Amino acid sequence: MALTKAMIVSNPSKTNRGSEYNQLVRDLLSYYGPPSKRPVANTSQTVDVYFRTLIVQVIEFEWKDEFLKWDPADYGDIDHIVVDSSLIWKPDLNLVENVSPGFIQQNDQPVYIYSDGTAVWYVPTITTTSCRVNVRYFPFDSQSCTLTFSSWLYDSRGLNLLFLNDTGDSEFFENGVWSISVTAKAQDRYYPCCIHPYRLIVYTVHLHRHYQHYLFNMVIPAGLLSFLNVAVFLVPPESGEKISFAVANLLSAILFQQLVSEFMPPLGSSIPLLGIYFMFSVMASYFSLTVAMVVLRVYHTEESYPMPRILRMSTGIASPPKNDSDRTTIKQDVITNVADKSRSCNGTETDLVVENGRRSIEPNEWQRLAHRIDRCLCVVVSFCTVAVDVYVVAMYLVRV
After folding, report:
1. N or C: which end of the chain has fewer CB within 10 A?
2. 128-156 pLDDT, tens digit each
3. Other beta carbons less than 10 A from residue 21's beta carbon
4. pLDDT tens digits, residue range 89-131?
5. Helices (H) and strands (E) in the chain, counts
6. Phi and psi of 323, rounded to 5°?
7. Residues with Cβ < 8 Å from 193, sequence gap 6 or more?
8. Closest to 136 measured CA to CA, from 262, 260, 276
9. Nearest to 135 by CA among 260, 280, 262, 269
10. Which pTM was predicted?
11. DSSP state, 113?
12. Inter-CA distances, 304 with 325, 366, 367, Å
């Protein structure tokens, strides 16, 4: 029974406080007027609206409503109430750069009203905006995107926009790709239609990309792959692996370019330096393959085909001896004698003849030309590769 009596005694207190709360809401809204009227007693007075954007789908508004003030002592020390947003005046702010056709903004959220007339309104919002992206220094780039909020109805005489802090606020959680910093400023903008300016709040979102993932998975492998183009010229033509190595290197460069192109941004005002570097690697691979075919064609040219005099003079290759037939006969006799001697040994005749034959026959002028082309182009491609690498690294270092 004691518990029942205590509950009965406590109920009137709650009922009285609820009645006072209802009475307060009725008193404030009975003579409030239409929600479209600005909450000022003097129509020439400006409404100061404090504005803040949280990068977590929330926009916060704060303003003073002169028609929603009361003395808490008259209503059981109630210092704040919650009012339906459709019953009172609210600032009409919109994102100027909004490009989302399905703009989602929940304007039906209630408004917190305090006894001094302060109104606080939180609006969950999902929007899409457009920004100009500069990916020249990808993946060491940083982007800036502006968000401009303004009133479409009231100019600076009727609504004065102010931001709650100088740097904005962000509740963005790090995702491993971007780090975000926000700055805010207020400015006035004149339009051709109106004499008085409109007040704007401009948020600048700075996006800084984390480059560690791209450095170890794209940049460094691309640099190592480009130096394989130099190795094509180091493979001797007589090995028989020059073409296969050049083709494998070309396919590797193309495959790597296709894989990394999925991670590179497709839009931008300029071509990324990394994309230019990949293009150079593919072009160098094509060049190495083409030169390898030319070198092999020169290397296997028949010795009976005379080398043009201009080509011999430009490459510095000495002329062959005049009695070339005697020289060939002597070399063939040496090979025959070696082969005859090898028959009396236990070794295999073919291996010995081939080995001694290669040692006894010197490269002809076409073979010397092929080797000289390899050496010269190896130096040229090495210089070009190092020059491009130094240029790209220098551009990134200047940016960083």
Report:
1. N
2. 788 888 888 888 888 888 888 888 888 88
3. 15
4. 888 888 888 777 655 566 678 899 999 999 998 888 777 788 8
5. 10, 11
6. -85, 65
7. none
8. 276
9. 269
10. 0.64
11. E
12. 11, 10, 13
